[in-house]
Amino acid sequence: xxxxxxxxxxxxxxxxxxxxxxxxxxxxxxxxxxxxxxxxxxxxxxxxxxxxxxxxxxxxxxxxxxxxxxxxxxxxxxxxxxxxxxxxxxxxxxxxxxxxxxxxxxxxxxxxxxxxxxxxxxxxxxxxxxxxxxxxxxxxxxxxxxxxxxxxxxxxxxxxxxxxxxxxxxxxxxxxxxxxxxxxxxxxxxxxxxxxxxxxxxxxxxxxxxxxxxxxxxxxxxxxxxxxxxxxxxxxxxxxxxxxxxxxxxxxxxxxxxxxxxxxxxxxxxxxxxxxxxxxxxxxxxxxxxxxxxxxxxxxxxxxxxxxxxxxxxxxxxxxxxxxxxxxxxxxxxxxx
Length: 337
Ligand code: PBG
Prior knowledge:
Layout: H1 4-11, H2 25-31, E1 41-48, E2 55-57, E3 60-66, H3 68-80, E4 85-91, H4 108-119, E5 124-129, E6 142-144, E7 147-149, H5 150-167, E8 171-174, H6 181-191, E9 198-205, H7 212-218, H8 237-250, E10 254-258, H9 264-273, E11 278-282, H10 284-295, H11 301-315, E12 319-322, H12 325-336
Parallel strand pairs: 1-3, 1-4, 1-12, 4-5, 5-8, 8-9, 9-10, 10-11, 11-12
Antiparallel strand pairs: 2-3, 6-7
C-alpha cells in the first residue's frame, strides 16, 4: 500500500534543481562567483619606536607591535605568502600637541618604509596619514578651543604624506577625516615632484566602536571627547557616497569604506556607483571578535574569517585590508594544495 507521502512525490516533476551544481567539491569550485585570494589583501603592520622586541597586542591575538629589528622577519613572511601590500602604522617615542613625529624625516614610519623597500622592493608599501598616534591628546588634528581645527590640520597631514613619500611609500592613506585632506595632500605631493605616489583615501570612515582594539594597539584613544565631529555617523549611507565623490574629485586613486562588516551595503553602493579601485578595512574589532570567539571554542574562527573576507569581496571590495591576511593566505594555500 502506497503512503500518502509517496504518492505526492511521484507527482512532482522538478525541472530546476539547483542542487545539481552543489553536489561535489569540484563542481562547487567551478561555480564559485567570488574567489578569495591572497592577492586581495593588504596587511596592517604596527611599528613601535620604543620597542627592542616585538610585543603581542592583547586584544588582537597573533598581531604584534614590531621593533625595527623584528620587522625584517615579518616582511619576509608577508612577501613569502604572496600578500602584495602592507599598510604601516607608527608608534613614536614622543608625542606632542602637533604630532610632529608623524612628519619627522627620521620618524618611525619613515624608517620602516626605507627598511622595507630595501628588503622587499616589490612589496607595495602603504602608509597611514593621521596624527592621532602622534598627538599627546590623541585627536587626529590640531586642537583649538577644544575642537579639531580642519584647515590647520591639512598642512600637517600634507607634511606627513610628503615625508612618507620621500621615504619611499607607494601609497599614502589619509585617515584623519578632515575636509579637503585629499586635495591638500595631492597638491603637496605634486609640488614636490611625487606625481607617482598614489592616494588611498579613507573616504567613508565611520565613527565606529569597532576601532577599540586598534586604539589599544596604537595608544591613540582621544584623551577627552570622541571622533564624532570628524568621522562619519554610522546611519548615513548617502553621505558616504558624497564623501567618496568628493575624494575622487580631489584626486583619490583608491577609495575606502571602513569598517567593512557592518557597512557591506555601503561597499556595494560604492562599487555600483564608482569605477575607482575600492578598499574595505576589516578593522581591529572585527578581527578581535572572531579571534575571541574562536579561542573560547564558540565558533570555528578559520571558517568564520574566510566567510567574512569572502563577504567583503562579494560586496564589491577589491582590496581587503585585514589582520587576517597572513592566516587567510596560509589557509587558502592549504586549500589549494
Ligand atoms: C587612525 C586610524 C584608526 C584606524 C585606522 N587608522 C583609528 C581611529 O580612527 O580611531 C582603525 C583601524 C582598526 O580599528 O583596525 N585615525
